[in-house]
Structures
1.
Amino acid sequence: MTRDMTIEGLLDDYRAGRRTVREVVAQAMMEIRREDPRNVWIAALDDAGLEPYLARLEALDPATLPLYGVPFAIKDNIDLAGLPTTAGCPEYAYVPQQSAFVVQRLIDAGAVPLGKTNLDQFATGLVGARSPYGACGNAFDPEYVSGGSSAGSAVAVALGQVSFSLGTDTAGSGRVPAGFNNLIGLKPTRGLLSASGVVPACRTLDTVSIFALDAADASRVLEIVAEHDPEDPYARFDQVPQLGLAGIPEGGFRFGVPAPGQLEFFGDRDYASLFDAAVEHLRGLGGEPVEIDFAPFLAAARLLYEGPWVAERYAAIRGFFDARPEALFDVTRGIIGGGREPRAVDAFEAQYRLQALRRQAEAAWDAVDLVLTPTAGTIPTIAQVQAEPVRVNSNLGHYTNFMNLLDLCAVAVPSGLRADGLPFGVTLFAPAFRDRELLPIADRLQRAAGLPLGATGRPQHDRPPLATDGRHYIPVAVCGAHMSGLPLNHQLTDRHARLIQATRTAPEYRFYALPGGPPERPGLVRVDSGGASIDVEVWAVPADRFGSFVAGIPSPLGIGRVRLEDGSAVPGFLCEPVAIAGATDITDLASWRHYLASRG
């Protein structure tokens, strides 16, 4: 493919009149409807089914909708009104009267659904080969697996047939296919995206996922679909993260790497060396690698299929399974059928075990801001999967199965190519609700790898890097006893605040040593003239802990807007002017530390 199928590229062309929606969709449908040797699609819309979407858009200005005319694909366990949902099992099929919540959000934003894509039956598998519609072939080499279960969703994007797609991710189904097809694969925080209109695999663990050519496109789609759905009992409002430090900085971040003995590449030397290169790429972006104990994560991963959570897969289709067990693939029937065995006591014991592992895994967030792993340890051929379906599939979940059990968010990122040209990807993950902080780092890491987009051969766009919105923390400028190593700094560190930068104010302030104490405190007062630049530290305070921090600030100090030497303004400590009567003017020292040193 030579045409630009990124969302930004399409929108630019529509607004400039270089392409029309009908032209883009017609070209995409021509490719979809021709012979499909990779078995990407289960069902595509016909011309009559597409017409309402196209006619609606022709009456609108391209600038009025955020996804105007952007074609997308839908994994066939997610409802699109009027088109059968099969979940990879023709005997199970039904025709929904309304689209899934997330699909409708995208349509309302101007996106055009083209059809339903292939998957491992009932989303049970990471290979993309467990489907009566045929094994889905990799976008780079159809002899190799596409990854699953969101197989066709990934390949359709990688081939440039659509701009983005929806998958689901319970055990890695939105990340493994991304890694194997050179894509961004966003596994959002569980519950952040609605699951209404989605055939469940494990209802308490499932999440809709997003495949895109780059992180900017994934971010754009996330902003559309991350809307709270009151009809989904497992939906969660976006919220301040409860684990880890305050925000993931775009530079100076610390990233965890599993200890060498805890990495597994199943004999794939190319993948091993490509992971080492990814670590260096992330270091080059300002990250500091920190070795972590990966054992609790791996132990949690084993619970997904060795514990009672497999009973959720049985519960999801219990009536159909009991009535039509012969309709399922042998391997799928064996896995889901195992869900009839666990007892209630097994479920409770597994929950206790998982909670203990969560506590052990949480220790990592005291040392790092995010973790980097391979997305998968190797990539098998379809023939290898067919020869050993359970073992090979299990290998692919080594770095993915724990993610939803431990309530983490993750982004799979293209990172390199093996000597034979097959993609290698890595995954960045962090505590729940840090999705929007991971994406800018994923964007920079993808740029550092320098790979083309998907399998299209098109280079990455030279656009400004994706920026974090910092919605989960509040920067605070401190100039006295709250600075690093001074008596009140613990009021910040106890709240998991972190130092962003040491800098100076704009030359607009007078600085005073206030009477009283201990501890001694300074007063920073903004003046119209005669001001100076004063040393400050800017700390990031978790938004949910900012209120308790401010509540403890005694008069005459308070929080206002402090202008920094670079012209920006952040919340920070200021002093009421009335309080400088009786205070010592220390403006000439320009630093609280210098003042303390001057007093011996």
2.
Amino acid sequence: MSLRRWCHRCWLGLVLWLALMPFTPLMALTAQAQGPTLIFQTAQAEITVQGQTKQQQVSLPYLWDREHPAQSGWMVFELRFSLAAPPLEPYGLTIPKISNGYSVYLNGVLLDRFGDLTRHDRADAKLPRLIAVPSGALQATNVLRLMVGADVGRQGGLSTVTLAPMALARAAYTPVWRWRVLGPQMVAIFSALVGLIGLLLWLTQPAVRADGTVGHDAVYLYGSLAEFCWVFRVADSLLESPPLPLPWWSVLSALSLWGWSSLTVLFCIEVVGWGQSRRLSGMQLWLGVLGLLGLGAAVAARVYGWPPALTVWYGLLGLTFLLFSLALVWQALQRGAGINSRLLAFAILVNVLIGLVDLYQLRVNPSMDGRSSLYYSSVLFGLVAALIVLRRFSSVSRQAQHLMGNLNSLVQHKEQALSISYERLEQVAREQARSGERSRILRDMHDGVGSHISIAIQQLQSGGARGDEVLHTLRDSLDQLKLAIDAMHLPPGDITALLANLRYRLEPRLKACGIELEWAVDALEPVAGFDAGAMRQLQFMLLEAISNVMQHAQASQLRIEAQQTPQGARIGVVDNGRGFDAGQVARRGLRLMQERAQAVGVQLQIHSLAGRSVVELNLG
């Protein structure tokens, strides 16, 4: 079932329920009761106005505001009646309207009381009453005494009174209760639900503004706040003991009607697309002026007792929204107007017309019934507003789904393009890595093997070099080549493996040179941040130090030391040769060793004395 059809069915069901509601208790009236039913339509009344009291026969219902406009006072109604015999079954009093405060006595026995009859503006009885008559309270001759206090402009007075067996009294009370109590309760619940839905949509659904920024959709907010104002207005018709003093609470109630009307106008303006019109600012200004006028009129009527002020303001409010509804209708009749505009124009026009009827019946020519039909016609606007909000949400959701689909398609396309780019980049990176590795090997061979071969060639060309010197140079070149190949497989930071590899390659040469190798290497943890390049540089530095010992030191013993330190590791190359001037050596040679140490952040220290020379490397 579509959302639109569901809303139509809900509206039809509500209308049928409200139309048939007054007739549902008719079956209860068919119940047989043994006692008589008395309906009092006249009474002997004692009316007190401004300290003046007079007695007179009055007809019921008696409406105070019609008989004594802009005044307050008290009424005492006496209803005398006789019964053939005191009834044995329980009886009840049905009073559709008795306000504003009251006390009900039967033969001097208090049956019910509401409010303080000694002061005005302390209570406002708005709901129908079903008062139980205690068993034995009725006699052959009876006096029903009703004392009623009437406030200025609050529809005070007394309706007809029905005395009947409890079953029939309840049957007469039920339709009035459904229309005056249950109906407004259902309207308030419905409006609260619509307002809550609108508020949740406003909080959770982003909207793109005309300037491209993202915010919230004002339609949801206006509709939500309008419904919440109406909940307050409807709930006030059920609330007889408000939390604030009654005059000021009545001011809030009057302003809630202005809030509902004004927010409804703003909702309509957004729906029909008048939000960018110049007339919007003028309408907003006038709505603000109406609010200030309404505050003054409500205070004058409710606090200072001048009801015409509020009546005039209600008339001005009604005229404003009548003109606005006519503008909506005119816009809805134009070619190209959408279904939302037409539904909204119809709902607003219906509510404005019913509101004007209520204004006449409740303020201009008040009646005892005091029912506001606007409470029920507002449901029409609530349903239309809910339908528009949900249609708008559905449209935005479809657009969002369409955009998400396009976005997903675009993202997939971009992912595929990125995947191809990544593959190409990986291929380029692998090629660059291979090229870099080739360059590194060539550089190492040039710096190590190439330089040693060049030295060997120079030695041979000079004719002055001994054969063992040339042989030593060529062996160094071969060791460089082997170690350069071994360095390709060394794990980053594994100093122990590097030293073991040097021992494997150089120990045979040390023995051939008559040098005893002493190994004092502890198991070392991998040094953090020591990558493959740093490992190669360290390998070259150690090879240079060991090669110098074999070639120049005339040592008989070489000690390789390695210990773990808090920063990383310490490596020492110690020999017992003839020693050398470390300062002179630094200027003449080993510059490459120092440059390599600085490049990888290794601290290089050289100490030399006759019988003990130390090359110390601190890593980390």
3.
Amino acid sequence: MVPKAVVDMLMGQISALQATVDRLTATIEEKDRIIAEKIEIILNLNRARFGQSSEKRAYILCDGQMSMFDQAGDGITEKAEKETAAEEKQTVRVTAHTRKAKRTMEEFAANLEEKVETIDLPEEQKFTADGRPLKYIGVDLVRSELIREPSRAYIRKIFIKTYADPKAEEETGCADIRRPHVPAPLLEHSYASSSVVTDIMVKKFADGLPLYRQEQMWKRLGVELRRNTMSNWVIRTGETYLKPFSDAFLAELLRQAVIHADETVLQVNKEPGREATAESRIWAYASSKQAVRQIRYFRYEQSRKGACAEKVLGGYAGVVVSDGYSGYNILNKATRAGCWAHARRKWVEAMPDGATRENALAAKGLEYCSRLFEVEQKLEGLPDAERREQRQLLSKPIVEEYYAWLESIFRPAGKLKKAIVYSLNQREYLCAFLDHGEIEISNNQVENAIRPIVVGRKNWLFCDTQAGANASVIVFTVLETAKANGLNPEAYLKYLLTVLPDRFAADPKAAVDDLMPWDDEVFTAFRASTVEH
């Protein structure tokens, strides 16, 4: 019989070993979880860098399809190698396909003027060896070329002629002196013109060309135009002439039934009491696709607090479409609607490598979202009431099935958990579209409006002052609203800066209703050959 002391000692050792095993098992499980998260991050980074940028179901692999993110040798089984070798020996028949016809010169440059250049024989070659003149028999078109001439700059000096009536002066002692009307300058005590300021604004805010690069371009034209001078012109012109349009656009937007809202980062170097590296925001608001008058309104704020949205939308009682940011919850009067593109994006981010519809929950979640978008494509262009009716009939069952499926998933982790939690937390807002035929199921409308700012920011990086930030959002508002209404933004902006100095010189609070982008005469005069969205 084993002594009790020995048994107790052995039991103690077993307990200690069991505790060690439990501790090591827990450590291994935690490390496995961390490794899985890191692998997921790497795969998402690879997908973002090398994969497609859209969020379509092409992320889900069909049966037998390999992942482009596999490392060398991964995912290639011996069976797959044999099948590949067998396929290489077979003759492959490619299905015929149609190719878009090459554009003609008339389609390519329909709005450009044409200059004809005819090359003739030298005079001495128009005669035969014995002196007889050759007979002209016709002209042939050899080719057409697209030509661009370098920009040029010049100084325009404006003189006025003065007239007087000598007889009246002789008889009355008072001269009858007459002078023509002189158009008001764009900016007092400045050599800025509407053409130059328009060029600066369009290059920076439409084409993303920062002022320091424009300064180099002016140097090549022989002009020492400093970037701080250009910045000052933009600020003064924006505040004097374009802010009334920005204010009018906001007033029109608030009269519409639906508003899309979003925000993006902006760095402003010289903000009182803040570090130069502090992040401010550009808040963006856009009309719905159905709106007749399209508005794109931008506003600079120092933060992302919901109070910033309340400044603009605090009294608004329509529908606000936004992402899942909780700051919009401050809007008490408006009806909130969520964005299914964001919900779909969460599933794309959670997609594991080599996912199929059968083996990945993220693939199934993406499938539900894609089905909703497919329904929306079929309903495009329907009247609001009919679209609401069809959504109740076609989309509501999909949404109900989707949420029943979400609630059945047990203990998700990582990005899969984030995708599930996002949809569950946003359920009220994501389902709002079912009862509103006038809204879209995504916030892409305003995200597309923000894109020029995001692209430009990669080049000009920051705004130096608050005045510059305010001027920037005003110019963006005018240019993007012009584009959204089908106007050529450059031609429209130049027209405004040409006619407004005289109008505001006579009355600084003069009405500008006749200059709105949706005015019939304005639209006819400045309609873009290709509408930009």
